[in-house]
Design goal:
The chain is of the alpha+beta class. The chain has four domains: about 90-120 and about 135-385 and about 395-405, TIM Barrel (Alpha-Beta Barrel); about 430-650, Sandwich (Jelly Rolls); about 660-865, Sandwich (Jelly Rolls), CATH 2.60.120.200; about 875-935, Type 1 dockerin domain (Orthogonal Bundle), CATH 1.10.1330. The chain has 14 helices and 49 strands. The strands form nine sheets. Strands 33, 34, 36, 37, 40, 45, 46, 47 and 49 form a nine-stranded antiparallel β-sheet that branches. Helix 2 runs parallel beside helix 5 (about 120-130) and helix 7 (about 190-205) runs parallel beside helix 9.
């Protein structure tokens, strides 16, 4: 995966996480063992939102996801709570956002707003219980207790700090030189233990939680350098005193405890005594926690997750985990194994004795046998090991599994955002990628850490404000909000000072890189987009450069215009600045428009209310990764410039053909029973599924581990080369010469598997049209044989495919869209098989020739047919159909009027850059004589 960062909110702390790793998702059928879905609410709200179910940012979204997890086969939910902004939760200092920065400020603000809007934790618990799911509060803050924003040894600003640790910094563990390891407390201090116990008691008393995971995971390495050695820390005075009292050893001076000595022996018995002592303090914490929760409700349950060995592991240290005492004294009710407590590099050279992947790991039987012989044989043992999406039985030693679901959440969030954007495109004619008039920003504010706005699309606004930074109060030279000079009579505008030559950025959290799964929104990477802004140059010394960027590369100089001193304007052409014949004025608001043909890498820029004055026409740009998600306004020195009413409107190229009027099959498998064989099953709409001769019925099953869209089920195919299933074999689609036939479906390919989907006349005969995933590429049937498209397919990701059969030309066109990416053509005007004629009848056939150990997954089969209507290359949308619903009607008139009054581009039908009476006459003529109304 690409390297990025997000803020992970815990119960009373936030953790700044560098990178992601692929972690586990199991979504299986109903089983005898527990299957717990682990979710990090604070992550979810800023990673997958706003406004998607996966974001969990509303009561309805939480209810929807609990139902989704129930449908996936989970039996419980481990929910990571965050009480920042929750009444009564006062154990945190929120560090100065001006020190932590605009990203941290935005994240803290997002969590606070949600917690103050509704009872997040209460809704989560009751929604889980309504679905019959066990609810656990996953509290991974035992060793993640926050940190100051700045200080010695801190390499990354941190947004929160626990109040007790702030007031008692001596409880932080130190090395022999006195260096602190932030976030990590020594529980030799009674106050360190009691303050942490109080947090759990708060969740029990105020939030009704009864099941707790007191997780040992730490993110201490994220804000400071990793420990040089595993045994570097643990030299606080109570530990020093205890070692002197018990063993007569001064660990501050004894050379055996010098981890930097070339003679250091990681297996020295006295060093081991020290590790056992430190582990004993953790055991005492669990005794205190059990007593504290019992005082509220003796039925409260406690779970602990560990790497799976005798030592705590990276990046905390080598102290002993006395898990046997935890079990035998009944301090815990559940023990989770093989859990990655932290990300640590070079854990072998740093002398860690346990790492969850391959060092010091005990077999599960060791834990199981001890539990069975202990005073508490009912203690549960859980595993966190499983291949993503492809679970195996946890085995007889375990009572269940603990699984994460980053990719499942990603698919839900991306799909829902994409559906919303397609609706916006239909309703508005474009996606409001950025829309900002600054009127809602208070004058003189510095925002959250110097940032104003939002990185994300807001489904309530149906646009994104953009995140604007750096913002100052108007006295420090940074861009600032003011209301003296603005475009229009009301509101505010942005002041861009001349010195010290600041840059104002507007960013969107959007990318072409699906591996950065916390970005669910696409950047502008195909189609057309329009950038508009108003600028006010105070005098001839005022200058501002405007660049349209990919947010991943702020130094990119590919698309932009430069308003220089004395009104001279330059523009970028092939990455070089060229002089325009147009000049700008002073002491007047002027509108600038940049129209970008993203698909063809060229743009034109204009000045004027109606874009009547060209700055450049068809200038070229060169971008290796052709994408845009940010704007930069850069002062040119001299005098002040003001900016207002900035927008980016995107019209992506979708390629896909709309559904036709008549449905042959519509099958998302949600009406089928999990585990059922599909043979003989009736789809949601359409003809019965039948396995064909030579195929085993058991090779085509309904399951709930994977799905794409709003449901939880799909079809899995496992078998040999003869595995074929069909729908409509005896009642197919007639290829009427007046019709188009459109086939849509989703496929998930595992490594080593292949898949075929075909429309054909007779089983065993040549297909009329077919797509074949084989040998790493997409192949298609081209009048007698499969032809390599040269377009590779990705493995283990959902891919949407479409075949459009033109019954007039006897050809078909194919499109492909990998989840997280933009659609693209796969092949066009490919000849049908010569054995298929107009008016022949074809049916749907699906196969997945492969080794029996692998699977292919399919979902969302939709085959429709009917008159071309509109929206394709032969029958485009009628002129004036701004909503692209194949009709010219009052809805289109409303769009036309809005753009006419607002001088927008939609409605400019004669390409004169003006929406006027001439365009209205064209619109009215098409309204009165709409040839598509009958469709």
């Amino acid at each position: 995966m690409g390297i990025g960062y997000i803020l992970i909110p815990y119960k009373r702390t936030f953790v700044f996480v560098v990178g992601f790793v692929m972690i586990l998702l199991f979504c299986g059928m109903s089983v005898a063992y527990d299957n717990y879905r682990v979710t990090s609410w604070g992550d979810d709200i800023i990673t997958w939102g706003p406004g998607t179910d996966a974001a969990l940012d509303s009561p309805q979204a939480i209810a929807n996801m609990m139902a989704h997890w129930k449908g996936r086969g989970f039996t419980g939910v481990c929910w990571r709570p965050c009480v920042i902004g929750l009444a009564g939760a006062d154990a945190l200092y929120i560090n100065d956002p001006n020190l932590t920065g605009y990203i941290m400020g935005w994240l803290v603000r997002s969590v606070i707003q949600a917690n103050q809007t509704f009872d997040v934790l209460g809704i989560a618990r009751t929604s889980a219980e309504a679905q019959g799911l066990k609810f656990w509060a996953w509290v991974p803050t035992v060793y993640s207790r926050g940190a100051p924003a700045t200080g010695p040894g801190i390499t990354l600003a941190y947004p929160v700090e626990e109040k007790y640790v702030h007031d008692h910094p001596e409880v932080l563990t130190i090395d022999r030189s006195g260096k602190k390891q932030y976030m990590v407390s020594e529980y030799a201090y009674p106050g360190a233990r009691s303050s942490k116990v109080d947090e759990f008691k708060f969740l029990a008393q105020q939030c009704g939680v009864r099941n707790f995971i007191a997780c040992l995971r730490t993110e201490s390495f994220q804000i400071q350098a990793e420990p040089d050695k595993a045994d570097q820390f643990g030299f606080n005075q109570p530990v020093v005193d205890a070692m002197q009292s018990l063993y007569g050893v001064n660990i501050l001076t004894d050379s055996r405890f010098d981890v930097y000595s070339v003679s250091y022996n990681v297996h020295d018995p006295m060093v081991e005594n020290w590790r056992i002592l430190r582990g004993g303090y953790l055991t005492q914490f669990y005794r205190d926690l059990r007593a504290g929760l019992n005082s509220i409700d003796p039925n409260c349950k406690i779970a602990v997750w560990i790497p799976g060995g005798e030592y705590i592991g990276s990046t905390l240290g080598n102290w002993r985990l006395d898990w046997r005492t935890w079990v035998n004294e009944g301090l815990i009710d559940q023990l989770g194994l093989w859990f990655n407590l932290a990300f640590a590099s070079d854990y072998t050279t740093r002398n860690y004795l346990t790492h969850y992947s391959d060092i010091g790991i005990l077999p599960s039987s060791t834990f199981k046998q001890y539990i069975q012989s202990s005073n508490h044989p009912n203690t549960q043992l859980m595993t966190s090991r499983s291949a993503e999406f492809y679970p195996t039985d946890p085995g007889s030693d375990f009572n269940g599994r603990l699984t994460f679901g980053l990719w499942d959440s990603y698919y839900i969030a991306w799909y829902q955002r994409w559906q919303q954007w397609k609706k916006d495109l239909k309703d508005f004619g474009h996606i409001k990628f950025i829309e900002q008039d600054f009127d809602n920003f208070p004058v003189g504010t510095t925002g959250n850490g110097g940032g104003l706005g939002d990185f994300c699309y807001d489904p309530v606004l149906r646009s994104s404000q953009g995140m604007w930074h750096p913002i100052g109060a108007g006295t420090d030279g940074n861009p600032s909000i003011q209301n003296i000079i603005k475009h229009g009579s009301l509101g505010c505008a942005m002041k861009l000072a001349a010195s010290p030559s600041p840059v104002l950025y507007c960013e969107r959290k959007a990318t072409y890189d699906r591996s950065r799964i916390y970005h669910i929104e696409n950047n502008i990477s195909n189609g057309n987009c329009t950038v508009e802004f108003w600028a006010y140059r105070r005098n001839n010394d005022s200058a501002v450069k405007t660049l349209f960027l990919d947010g991943e590369a702020a130094s990119d100089n590919s698309v932009g215009i430069d308003l220089r001193k004395n009104g001279v304007i330059y523009y970028l052409n092939n990455n070089a600045w060229a002089l325009s014949s147009t000049t700008s004025s002073t002491n007047i608001w002027q509108k600038f428009t940049i129209n970008i043909d993203v698909s063809n890498k060229r743009y034109s820029a204009f000045m004027g209310v109606n874009a009547e004055t060209p700055v450049c026409v068809n200038a070229l740009y060169d971008k290796t990764k052709n994408g845009f998600s940010a704007i930069a306004f850069m002062s040119g020195g001299g005098s002040v410039v003001y900016l207002d009413d900035i927008s980016v409107k995107w019209v992506p190229q979708l390629y896909y053909m709309p559904k036709r009027r008549y449905t042959f099959i519509d099958e998302d498998f949600e009406n089928q029973m999990v585990g059922a064989t599909l043979n003989g099953c009736t789809p949601q709409s359409g003809n019965v599924w039948n396995t064909l001769p030579g195929s085993s019925q058991n090779q085509f099953l309904v399951e709930n581990r994977l799905s794409f869209g709003d449901g939880v089920k799909c079809m899995s195919v496992q078998g040999n080369t003869s595995s074929v299933i069909a729908s409509g074999q005896y009642a197919g689609v007639r290829l009427d010469p007046n019709y188009l036939a459109v086939a849509d479906f989703d496929v998930w390919l595992r490594s080593g598997t292949v898949a075929k989907v075909a429309l054909l006349k007779t089983h065993g005969g040549n297909p009329t049209a077919a797509l074949y995933a084989h040998d790493g590429n997409w192949w298609y049937w081209n009048n007698g044989s499969y032809q390599n498209s040269g377009i590779a397919y990705e493995k283990e990701v959902w891919i949407r495919l479409q075949m459009v059969l033109n019954c007039v030309t006897k050809t078909y066109t194919m499109y492909v869209q990998t989840a997280g990416e933009m659609p693209k053509p796969l092949a066009s005007a490919v000849a049908w098989d010569s054995g298929t004629n107009v008016n022949d009848v074809v049916y749907l056939e699906v196969s997945a020739p492969q080794a029996s150990s692998n699977m292919t997954y399919f979902d969302n089969f939709v085959v429709t047919y009917g008159a071309p209507g509109c929206g394709d290359e032969l029958h485009p949308y009628p002129v004036g159909d701004f909503s692209q619903d194949c009709k010219v009607n009052l809805f289109d008139l409303a769009i036309f009027a809005q753009n006419w009054l607002g001088n927008g581009p939609t409605g400019n039908m004669n390409n004169d850059q003006t929406v006027d009476m001439v365009d209205f006459a064209t619109f009215a003529a098409n309204w009165l004589a709409d040839p598509y109304q009958s469709n």
